What does this fold into?
Amino acid sequence: LLLLLLLLLLLLLLLLLLLLVAASPMGCNASDDKEAKYPQVPESFLTGNVQCAMLLMPIGLVIYGWTLAYSTHIAGPVIGHFLIGAAAAAYLTGMFGYLWTIKQQSTSAAAGAVQAAMLFAAAAISYISVYGVRRMGIGGYFTLLAGI
It folds into this structure.
């Protein structure tokens, strides 16, 4: 029975990995489709990708936080983490397409600035998270993040 559960978990993780690998090209295709429809509107790169991120990110954060809070099976946090990653992968392809459209002469500098801002934000959130989890618990804190 334990071997069957481990095999099932392994299959679930492989499926999540395949879906996560597919999320970035799917976001890129959605971004390209919007750009083909509205070539004069650079913001069209972001519409579908932002909608996808707005749907998946809060759901993933809530699942991740509350499954950790209740010490559930490892599959719960992995599914939440997958949704968070898929949302980020879908959003970033549109963001970089948008930057490429509006800053064609300095795309690499703009992309580097986005990456640096993401790293600084991650450091700040990591620092703040210690206090948020201590005060609210991990489930409540991740629900707050999902609401923001």
Q: What stands out?
A: Residues 56 and 87 are 6 Å apart (CA to CA).
